[in-house]
Amino acid sequence: MIITGTLVNVLAVFVGSLIGLLFHARLPKRFSDIIFQGIGLFTIVLGMVMALKAEEWIIVILSLIVGGVIGELMNLEQFFDHLATRIGKLFKTKGKGFNEGLLTAFLLFCMGSMTILGAIEEGLGGKPELYYIKSLMDGISSIALASGLGIGVMFSIVPLFLYQAGLTVLASHFGSFMPELMVSSISATGGVLLVGLGLNILKVTSIKILNLLPALLFAVLASWVFLLL
């Protein structure tokens, strides 16, 4: 099965989230708040580490600008807020908190270079060792995330599956032609988004991260154009 690594990763996050939700239900608010702050700080540091590995900053900058304009025109923030509110009501949680948990988990689990390299490894027929390692890391991380951010973290398995499975299938056809520049550009752009997300978690800013998500797709296109030129 070509997406075995992704399925293991999704299961690890699901189980980790369940454990985290059990803690979340029993944690006093002051402990939940400090975990929340720790997640925010970790998100910023991880984002900075990823962003600083950019090979061509012009690609990252253009991706954020063009992707942000596209996201603003599509009004992704409002769309996902409405969706999160509707889902959140089913589980008696605030829509904004649900949205924040899902987005934080998705970006943390999907934006690293390990995700892309793991997809290439499995897509080209290799044993998904990177995804097994990532599954262990994500499973542990999801416990902390769900205990601080709630059930939205568990729902991140949906975009996680779609993203990683899609990358793996794509890599099975084009993985050997996927340049290092593209990998680093996607990872660096995701890193910048993580910094913004961390600042939002700490309530320092209110950046529209969801409206900036199309930057990740534009980073792929910009990388190809840059290499062709």
List the helices and strands and how they pair.
Layout: H1 4-26, H2 29-51, H3 57-74, H4 76-90, H5 95-110, H6 113-123, H7 129-149, H8 152-155, H9 157-174, H10 180-201, H11 209-212, H12 214-228
- Which spans have pLDDT < 50 for at least 5 consecutive residues? none
Radius of gyration, taken over Cα atoms and rounded to an integer in Å: 17 Å
For the sheet with most strands, the description reads: none
Proportion of strand residues: under 5%
Query: What's the count of strands?
Result: 0
Helix content: over 70%
Number of contiguous helices: 12
Q: What series of H and E elements makes up the topology?
A: HHHHHHHHHHHH
Mean pLDDT: 86
Give the termini distance in whole angstroms: 38 Å
Structural class: mainly alpha
Q: How many structural domains in the coordinates?
A: 1
Assign an overall shape.
Answer: globular
Short description:
The protein has 229 residues and is mostly helical.
How does this model look, in words?
The mean pLDDT is 86. It is built from twelve helices and no strands. The protein has helices at residues 4-26, 29-51, 57-74, 76-90, 95-110, 113-123, 129-149, 152-155, 157-174, 180-201, 209-212, 214-228. By secondary structure, it is mostly helical. The longest helix has 23 residues, at 4-26. It has one domain (4-228). α10 (180-201) runs antiparallel to α12 (214-228).
Relevant terms:
229 residues, mainly alpha, globular
